[in-house]
Amino acid sequence: MSGRAQLMWDDAVTGYDFGDSHPMDPVRLALTMGLVRAFGLDRAVDLVAAKPAGDSTLRLVHRPDYVSAVKAASADPRAADQKYGLGTVDDPAFAGMHEVSALIAGQSVAAAEAVWRGETRHAVNFTGGLHHAMPGGAAGFCIYNDPALAIARLLELGAERVAYVDVDVHHGDGVQTAFWEDPRVLTVSLHEHPRTLFPQTGWPEETGAGAGEGGAVNVALPAGTGDAGWLRAFHAVVPELLADFRPQVLVTQHGADTHFEDPLAHLAVSLDAQRSVMAACHDLAHSYADDGRWVALGGGGYAVVDVVPRSWTHLVGIAAHAPVDPESVIPASWRDEVYARTRQPGPARMTDGRTPSWASWEDGYDPADRLDQAVLATRRSAFPLRGMLA
User: Is the Cβ–Cβ distance between 297 and 253 less than 8 Å?
Assistant: First the structure.
């Protein structure tokens, strides 16, 4: 197995562009790759440009009629069929939509294939993590659900246990739906409470069905949760589940929209806490997945200059076993690129100046605390279904 991580990248992914007024500005992808290069991380990984996902791969998750509808809207955006979630405010149709969406999905699928086949232990596709797309429709800025497609491809290749951990501020509803009744997949999502944020799902009582009962785990965090609470919730739930499930592959989604600067949500997490969870996921892959097999994806994130590029550059560095020191000064060449592209000043360092810490769940909990109530609701709903103590 190669000691070098793979970083999936094709310049054409920046064509995933819903228009000038849409919050999902593809400049976030270009700036992330620019920052990766500014720190020399492109030389610490194997850069791979994979082929787009073909129809047979897309249909591992998506219905044939939906794929056909995306193709039709891609060829003529005026023909977008809103019953498939296309041509809406969240998911405007644009020319070439199918092609670039399939390209992003192809990067995640290829990352999963490389990890499964032993070509690398870790593979990163920060352009992916589009976790809201459903089998029969677009949703939440997502056309094709690349995390679900990557997992489905792993199952097709023979995987019997795949764990998916999603720390985006929004519930990973599309991935949960895809594997709702599949005992081979454990989905864990930590997100802002559905009372206060799209997609209004991800309640702790959502635990899977049929043979997959207990295979969906949801931590619904109170609005305003900051570093200490976010990290406490993660460590109170995720490590125990992975130790019990022992996945062959760990797939993680690292939406940067938990950050306190993100304009679309209400958590108050710092870049430093995001980095801490990335490092924890890396360590959990080495502890519990076969040979440390880890596929790491991007996701949401709408503070496209100050937050997203720094967050995902840390992710690439961690996967490459070449972590970027949070105190590092960001190269002036990248800040010049930021200004040229956005007319905004770029951040100066790779930190928000925080030192994240949290209180361990093993030391007890406060039943009157809202964060602890959220964690306890999750553990009481999901853990007994897996034969684990709440």
Answer: yes
Single out the catalytic residue among 122, 131, 132, 259. 132
Q: What's the first-to-final CA gap in the chain, in angstroms?
A: 38
3-state secondary structure of 265: coil
Rg (the chain; Cα; Å) = 19
Q: Rounded distance, CA 369 to CA 229, Å?
A: 10
The neighbour count for residue 390, using CB atoms within 10 Å, is 11
Residue 132 known to be catalytic: yes
- CB contact at 8 A, 312 and 298: yes
DSSP 200-239: ----TT----GGGTT-EEEEEEPTT-BHHHHHHHHHHHHH
pLDDT in tens, the chain (390 residues): 667 999 999 999 999 999 999 999 999 999 999 999 999 999 999 999 999 999 999 999 999 999 999 999 999 999 999 999 999 999 999 999 999 999 999 999 999 999 999 999 999 999 999 999 999 999 999 999 999 999 999 999 999 999 999 999 999 999 999 999 999 999 999 999 999 999 999 999 999 999 999 999 999 999 999 999 999 999 999 999 999 999 999 999 999 999 999 999 999 999 999 999 999 999 999 999 999 999 999 999 999 999 999 999 999 999 999 999 999 999 999 999 999 999 999 999 999 999 999 999 999 999 999 999 999 999 999 999 999 999
Using CA atoms of 307, 310, 315, 318 in order, give the dihedral in degrees to the nearest 10.
-140
Q: How many CB atoms lie within 10 A of CB 89?
A: 8
* Euclidean distance between CA atoms 300 and 373, whole angstroms: 26
Q: Among all chains, which residue has been given the structure tokens 């690292």?
A: 254
Distance CA 166, CA 295 (A): 12
Nearest to 248 by CA among 280, 223, 285: 285
Length of the chain: 390
On whether the pTM is more than 0.70, the answer is yes
